[in-house]
Amino acid sequence: MDSLTALQSMGLTLPSPAYIFGAIVFGLVGFVAYRRGKTSGRKPTLWLGVALMVYPYGVSSTLWLYILGLGLCAGLYLDRA
Predict the structure, then answer these.
(1) pTM for this structure?
(2) How far lies 19's CA from each of 22, 34, 35, 65, in Å?
(3) pLDDT at 14 over 90
């Protein structure tokens, strides 16, 4: 436990279970959208899938993870043919 307190004193914290769950779910949705966009030749679907897979690496807040993820999923919903 000493190493955990040392990391916390440097400002590094572990993500919450809600964050990990959201990152996995949005990553899986992004992978499916990427594959669907690649096979159907729809560029917006492909790039929205890439964005869904990548954005959790740049967002540290759980609230923003879900806000952006739901926004990108709404974009996928509106892009469907």
Answers:
(1) 0.83
(2) 5, 22, 24, 7
(3) no
